[in-house]
Amino acid sequence: MKELGCQAVIRRKSTYRVSLTKGRLTDGTVLENTLNRKFTQQEPGKVFVTDVTYIPTKTGWLYLSLVMDLCTREIVVCEMSPCQNMALAMQTLHSLKAVASGPAVLHSDQGVLFTSPMFRKQARDYGFKQSYSRKGNCWDNAVMEGWNGTLKTEWLYHPDKRFDKNLLTFNQARREIEAYCAYYNEKRIQAKLSYRSP
């Protein structure tokens, strides 16, 4: 790399602290971690992970609501909005229902969108059994959190791509992120997939 003038983009150090507290909603519902870090799945379309991340744009934050199939590691849903609200969460569920066939597990953190009564009811109606990371424990959703970091390392912060991503408009950022998702799904090889793309 030195001979070719290449330099790796290093992610910033994480300062997460782990909490082993089990989440409980005000109605007494316990948020179970049924996935329990079983990130290697043998059948596509049966176990999904999801998360919301955000990207700076010229007009404010762009929120990405993503869903990954744990078997194929493919990003099957990528919804975007200038607001992190229930409309974004519900659109993510609707889009997932369109690509998922039959009952499936949907794992997320304990964010307000994923624990809201509306989201939980719609997920049940669609046949998704929800699983939740333990409170304050990002490693319980490591694959999805890792993908968010990969997007930011390879696209947002990459010096050869553009330094001024926060100067993109909402629509420009949307197009570039959609292009990155297509590249990730169709061309980017992964060791865990025997050096094939999703």
Structural key phrases:
single chain, 198 residues, alpha/beta, Nucleotidyltransferase, domain 5, 5-stranded mixed sheet, 30% helix
Concise synopsis of the structure shown:
By secondary structure, the chain is α/β, with parallel strands linked by helices.
Protein architecture, described:
This protein is of the alpha/beta class and 198 residues long. The protein has a single domain, classed as Nucleotidyltransferase, domain 5 (2-Layer Sandwich). The protein is 30% helix and 19% strand. The chain is built from five helices and five strands. Strands 3-2-1-4-5 form a five-stranded mixed sheet. Strand 1 and strand 2 form a beta hairpin. The longest helix is centred in the last third of the chain and has 17 residues. The protein is globular. The relative contact order is 0.18. About 3% of the residues have low confidence.
Number of helices: 5
List the helices and strands in order.
EEEHEHHEHH
For the largest sheet, list the strands in their spatial order.
3-2-1-4-5
* Rough outline: globular
For the record, the count of structural domains works out to: 1
Residue-averaged pLDDT, rounded? 88
Sheet with the most strands, sense and barrel status: 5 strands, mixed
The CATH fourth-level homologous superfamily: Ribonuclease H-like superfamily/Ribonuclease H
What portion of the residues fall into strands of 2 or more residues? 15-25%
* Ends apart, CA distance between termini: 27 Å
Q: Portion of residues in helices?
A: 25-40%
Alpha-beta content class: alpha/beta
Beta-strand segment tally: 5
| Cα-atom radius of gyration | 17 Å
CATH topology: Nucleotidyltransferase, domain 5
CATH class label = Alpha Beta
Low-confidence stretches: 16-21
So, CATH architecture?
2-Layer Sandwich
